[in-house]
Amino acid sequence: MEEFFKDRKKIGIFVLLLIVIISSGIIYCTSGYKELKKNDNESIFIEEETSAEKNYSNENYENRISSDYIKSNNFNKEEKNITVEIKGEVKNPDVYVLEENSIVKDLIEKAGGLTENADINSINRAKQLQNHELIYIYNKNEESSINVSENTAQSSINTQVNSKVNINSATIEELKTLKGIGESKANSIIEYREKSGAFKSIEDIKNVDGIGEKVFEKIKDSLTV
Known about the structure:
single chain, 225 residues, mainly alpha, Ubiquitin-like (UB roll), DNA polymerase, domain 1, 3-stranded mixed sheet, two-stranded antiparallel ribbon, 49% helix, 12% strand
């Protein structure tokens, strides 16, 4: 009988140890699974966060490029304007800003149109405007040039008199009527005028290549601005 109780006691201890071992295994496996699941969730969260950051960064980059492109286009548009002045027989003579490649007709319309006294025969409305150019619209009763034809016989001289030549609006032919001004110097005057803008005084014509003090003394009484 004693032996029987001893055996039962051993069996009970063995069963108890077995239960403890199994329970420990279950607890270990469960906690390991939870830890693994937690790590997986954290990894997924980090990947999603990284992906979101990349998307945000890409959106910012695209927006920045788009903004820079718009600014660049606006800058280019601003660069394609020209500044020109119109005087004479227009309703609103002034300095105007127009788009590049505009023509005289566009400038006249900008200035409110021609007056009733404008000499339309002296206007080339299809002429393309240059930056800083001055356009002068003559009065139909105004004598705009001096035409002199010199021959050996004095009787063949025909002169249409105009007291002064406006160096801000004169054509090549008008400039050539001045003493000492030929084709080359007349072209130089017009080129200087187109690049540097209108002459502020008649003395400014001395800034043109080929026109020194001696030439200026000959023509100064025939000049106006």
